[in-house]
Specification:
elongated, four-stranded antiparallel beta sheet, 2 domains, five-stranded parallel beta sheet, 37% helix, alpha/beta
Amino acid sequence: MRVLLVEDDEPVAESLRRGLKRYGFEVEWVSTGEAALRHPGPYEVVLLDLGLPDADGLDVCKTLRERGDVPIIVISARSDETDRVVGLEIGADDYVSKPFGVREVIARIRAVMRRAQPRTPAENGPEGGGPDSYGARLTIDRKAARVRLDGEEVALAPKEYDLLAFLTEEPGALMSREQIMEAVWDANWFGPTKTLDVHVAALRRKLKGAITIEAVRGVGFRLEIVSGGGDTNGGSPDSRSGVS
C-alpha cells in the first residue's frame, strides 16, 4: 500500500517510515503543504500533520479532499477537540494525536481503507509477490504481520515481531542497541534496555535453527540466516559473545 506522509518533523517522519516499511507499506515523505499538494501520486492514503511550516494543515486537508476521495488521516500534536472536529468536518477520515505508536497508525490506516474500499476475501491476499523468505525455513508476511517456520505460524509478541522485522531488513548487518531501541521501541523509550535482551532471547528460542542472533558485546546484535534445514550450533551464540 502506498502512503503519502506529510510531516515536517524529521525524527517523527523517519520513525514512522521505518515502522510502516516493516509492515509492507511504501511511504513517500514530504515536509511541506506545498509539496503535498504538488505530489503527483499515486497513493492510497495520506498521513497529514497539521503543524506544517508553510501552511495550515487543515487548509491542506480541505484542498486534498476537494481533489478526490483518497483517505486522509490527520496526525498532529494538537489535541484540542475543536481541531479534531474541524479536521473531520472538512474531510479527514480519522485523527491521531501525538504521541502515537506505529501499530495504532497502521490500525487506523486499515480501518479507513476497509471503510473506503471494502474487499472480498480473494482480494485480501498479499500484494507484490507475497511473504518474504529467509533461508529454507523462515517466511515473514509483512503485510499480515505473520511469521512462519517450516510452514507453521509462529506466535510472536508484538515487539518480538517488530524486532524480527527490523533485523531482517538487513541480515548480517551489525545493529547497535541504540538503533534497535529507536526503531522498535521509538526514540522516547525510557524503560530498561534489558527488555531488548529478553526479546532477542525469545526470538532465538522460537526461531531456533532458522536464524542466529549474535550479541556483540558493547555494540549490539547481528542477525544471520541459517542456511539449510538444520541447526548446527544450537541456535544460540551466547557462549561465544555474551549479552552486552
